[in-house]
UniProtKB/TrEMBL annotation:
This is LemA family protein. GO terms for cellular component: membrane. The keyword Transmembrane applies. It is a single-pass membrane protein. It comes from the Bacteria.
Length: 193
């Protein structure tokens, strides 16, 4: 009788441990998905601001149509890419690639203000620049949060004994968002005039 009670207690402990590990994996995966959702929210916010920026700049920089068209094209491309509520890793990477191109294009538009003093003095342009800069910072923070969530989740997938539960539950590893190579290089500096 005592042996049977001990056996039942061991089985109960094992079942509880499996449930706790499984729920921990679910929680980590959910945090990863939620952190991706934060990136998506910020990308949509930026996409909503871009048409206003383009319209504001258009009036001042009429011969900069190529730069403006590029931003609009990339924005539309990103809108199409973000329409999937559950993107795959490849789709996320393409979205981040497009997002990086938008960031570079926005830098070009911000630089236009140096050539157009009237644009630089435009309050609407300044407000949009500030909002876009804040949004870019939020996107960068959201990327960091996503990568931290991915790290926690992937650690659970690879750690014993939760890795056994992960295999049984068909949990899949998630890839980190990578920083574009050109952003990791130190800028060249020249003191010559």
């Amino acid at each position: 009788m005592t042996g049977m009670l001990i056996g039942l207690a061991v089985i109960a402990v094992i079942i509880i441990a499996v449930v706790v590990m499984y729920n921990g994996l679910i929680k980590a995966r959910t945090y990863t998905e939620e952190s991706w959702s934060q990136i998506d929210v910020q990308l949509k916010r930026r996409n909503d601001l871009i048409p206003n920026l383009v319209n504001t700049v258009k009036g001042y920089a009429t011969h900069e149509k190529e730069t403006l068209s590029r931003v609009v094209q990339l924005r539309n491309q990103l809108v199409d890419q973000t329409s999937n509520p559950n993107p795959t890793t490849d789709q996320r990477e393409k979205m981040m690639e497009t997002s990086n191109q938008i960031t570079d294009s926005l830098k070009s538009i911000f630089a236009l203000s140096e050539n157009y003093p009237d644009l630089k003095a435009n309050q609407e342009f300044m407000k949009l620049m500030e909002e876009l800069t804040n949004t870019e910072n939020k996107i960068a923070y959201s990327r960091q949060l996503f990568n931290s969530s991915v790290a926690s989740y992937n650690i659970k997938l690879q750690s014993f004994p939760s890795n056994l539960i992960a295999k049984m539950g068909n949990f899949q590893q998630v890839n980190y968002l990578q920083v574009p190579e050109e952003e990791t290089k130190a800028p060249s500096v020249s003191f010559d005039k």
